[in-house]
Each structure stands twice: as structure tokens, then as C-alpha cells.
């Protein structure tokens, strides 16, 4: 797949692209289907919840091959909610997830001077997010029949 307008992520072999075409949207759907529906057994109706039109999505590439995706939306209180963060199984445990999240945080602080990121983390990923500076909020809960915990991180743009 030729993907014009790929942005380089500093100090990483990954590249990222804002999803703008139907073909890219289909690629996002494929990645999410592989991770959430096939691997985690989430129902297809629950995974594809109709929220994509109100979200901004990204594709992440390694050697021009799409390996991951994520989306986010901004709520009425101004909080940013990343979600549907999907990295194909064969690319996990290589630092790509951390690279994606760090890039996303830099992207967001480029848009907003100060912002709070709130996300629903699958419980098995709690340490992953804690290591990135996210703090757990409240008790665990079920979402798509998987235990989750809400987490947040406050960001502030630094000036030089």
C-alpha cells in the first residue's frame, strides 16, 4: 500500500499517517478486527460502535506496512480520549506501543497548551500506562467483557 504523507516519528522506524481516505479507514478496520474481534473475541458490533465518524484516527507503519492504529476524540470538558489502540500481535513487545503513545502525546500538546488525556486501559496493560505516566482512577470495570481501568495523564506544552 502506498501511503503518501507519512510522518516520521523521531528515533523510531515507525511512521504515522492521519486517516483521510476510505481505503485507510478500511485498513484501520482490518487492524482492529484482527486485534479486537479475532484475538480478544470482542463482538464485531461492539468493536465497530459507530464512533469513528466523531474521532480522529491514525495508522502506524513499519517499512510501509500498516501495523497499528488508534483513534481519539475530545469530549465536552476538553479531555482527550484515545482508544481502539491496536497493534498487531507479531509487533508487540518491541517498544512500538510506547512509541505510539509518546508520539500521540506530543501530537496532542502541539494542538493544546494544557490537556488531560483519559483512557480506558485493559487491566493487563495498567503497568504499561503507569510506566508512561498515567494514573489509575477509580475501580476496575467491564467493557466489552474485558476488565478495564480508567487512567489519566495531564500534559502541558513546554516552551523553549
What does this structure look like?
By secondary structure, the chain is α+β, with helices and mostly antiparallel strands. The protein has one domain (7-156): Aminopeptidase, CATH 3.40.630.30. Helices cover 28% and strands 38% of the residues. It has helices at residues 22-39, 44-47, 96-111, 126-131, and strands at 7-8, 14-18, 56-62, 65-74, 80-87, 114-122, 135-143, 146-156. It has a 5-stranded antiparallel sheet with strand order 1-2-3-4-5, sandwiched between helices. A 3-stranded antiparallel sheet has the order 6-8-7. A hairpin with a 2-residue loop joins strand 7 and strand 8 (146-156).
Fill in the CATH topology: Aminopeptidase
Whole-number count of domains: 1
The CATH class turns out to be Alpha Beta
Which sequence of strands runs across the widest sheet?
1-2-3-4-5
What is the global morphology?
globular
Annotation keywords:
single chain; 160 residues; alpha+beta; Aminopeptidase; five-stranded antiparallel sheet; 4 helices; globular
In short:
This protein has 160 residues and is an alpha+beta fold. Helix content is 28%, strand content 38%. The strands form 2 sheets. A 5-stranded antiparallel β-sheet has the order 1-2-3-4-5, with helices on both faces. It has a 3-stranded antiparallel β-sheet with strand order 6-8-7.
Amino acid at each position: 500500500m502506498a501511503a503518501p504523507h507519512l510522518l516520521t516519528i523521531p528515533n523510531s522506524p515507525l511512521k504515522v499517517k492521519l486517516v483521510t481516505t476510505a481505503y485507510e479507514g478500511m485498513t484501520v478496520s482490518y487492524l482492529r478486527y484482527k486485534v479486537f474481534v479475532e484475538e480478544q473475541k470482542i463482538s464485531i458490533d461492539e468493536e465497530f460502535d459507530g464512533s469513528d465518524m466523531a474521532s480522529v484516527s491514525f495508522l502506524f507503519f513499519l517499512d510501509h506496512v500498516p501495523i497499528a492504529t488508534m483513534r481519539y476524540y475530545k469530549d465536552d470538558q476538553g479531555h482527550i480520549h484515545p482508544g481502539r489502540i491496536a497493534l498487531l500481535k507479531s509487533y508487540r513487545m518491541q517498544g512500538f506501543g510506547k512509541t505510539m503513545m509518546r508520539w500521540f502525546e506530543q501530537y496532542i500538546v502541539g494542538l493544546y497548551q494544557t490537556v488531560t488525556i483519559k483512557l480506558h486501559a485493559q487491566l493487563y496493560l495498567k503497568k504499561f500506562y503507569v510506566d508512561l505516566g498515567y494514573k489509575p482512577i477509580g475501580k476496575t470495570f467491564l467493557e466489552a467483557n474485558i476488565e478495564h481501568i480508567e487512567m489519566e495523564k495531564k500534559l502541558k506544552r513546554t516552551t523553549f
